[in-house]
Amino acid sequence: MATKNQMMRRAALLSAALATVLTGGAVPASGAEPTPLDSAAYRPAAPAPDGAPSDPAPGGGAPTPGEPGVPGEPREPGDPGSGPGDSRELTDPAAPDAPADPGSPGADAGDQPSLVRGDPREFGAQIFRGNAFDTCQAPSADTMRAWHGTSPFGAVGVYIGGRGRACPKQKHLSPDWVRTVDQQGWKLMPVYVGSQAPCVIAKNKRRFRMSDKDPYGQGKREGLDAVRQAEKLGMGRNSAVYLDMEAYRYKQQKCADTTLRFIQGWNSAVRAEGYVAGFYSSADFGVAHLEKARAAGARGLPSAVWFARWRTEPSTDGERNLNPEAWQPHRRIHQHTGNVKRTYGGHTVHIDQNLVDAPVAVVG
Question: Model-level pTM?
Answer without folding.
Answer: 0.78
